[in-house]
Amino acid sequence: MNIRFVKLQSGASDHLVVNAVDVPARHWAGLARTLCQPTRGAGADVLIGVGHTGQGRFDLSCLGGDGVTVPATVWTAAAAAVAIRRRYGYQAVRLRADHLAFEVSVAGQEVRVHLGGHQSAPDHPDGWRITVRYAFDGEIAHHAPASDLFAD
């Protein structure tokens, strides 16, 4: 089993982004605990799983380093969009996480995030401008059973 990931920095947080199809849902918490640790993994605050639902639309799953689900933010949306740009080539994407929807456009390291749907952000009518810094691409190659890598 090989799991590719991208490490990015946005806001004050480090994010690891993986393709949701690479990891069965039951292993997400263990993967977050393993990958987010600075000693055993790549070190990050949040693990973001992206699932492509077609035509530039993606579902997000966000977990903290302790394996617990955390809410998506404009920073996680921005990091996910940059990783999606690197992997799929989309410059503009729609992201859905829990009850939130984001419309995101990427131009290099500069990302513009808008809340989608009926949500409003009166303090940011033109959306958030966020700088996302690419750290590195990585891969975990694991030949033992997945339950060993993602032990709960």
In a nutshell, what does this entry contain?
The chain has 152 residues and is α+β, with helices and mostly antiparallel strands. Helices cover 18% and strands 44% of the residues. It has an 8-stranded mixed beta barrel with strand order 1-2-3-4-5-6-7-8.
Secondary structure layout:
Elements: E1 2-10, E2 13-19, H1 28-36, E3 46-54, E4 57-64, H2 74-88, E5 92-97, E6 100-107, E7 110-115, E8 128-141, H3 146-149
Parallel strand pairs: 2-3, 4-5
Antiparallel strand pairs: 1-2, 1-8, 3-4, 5-6, 6-7, 7-8
Low-confidence stretches: none
- Shape verdict: globular
The rounded Rg comes to 15 Å
Number of strands: 8
Instruction: Estimate the mean pLDDT confidence.
Output: 86
Q: What about the largest sheet?
A: 8 strands, mixed, barrel
Going across the biggest sheet, name each strand in turn: 1-2-3-4-5-6-7-8
Structural class: alpha+beta
Features:
152 residues, 3 helices, 8 strands
Describe this structure in words.
The chain is α+β, with helices and mostly antiparallel strands and 152 residues long. The chain contains 3 helices and 8 strands. It has an 8-stranded mixed β-barrel with strand order 1-2-3-4-5-6-7-8. The longest helix is centred in the middle third of the chain and has 15 residues. The protein is globular and about 40 Å long.
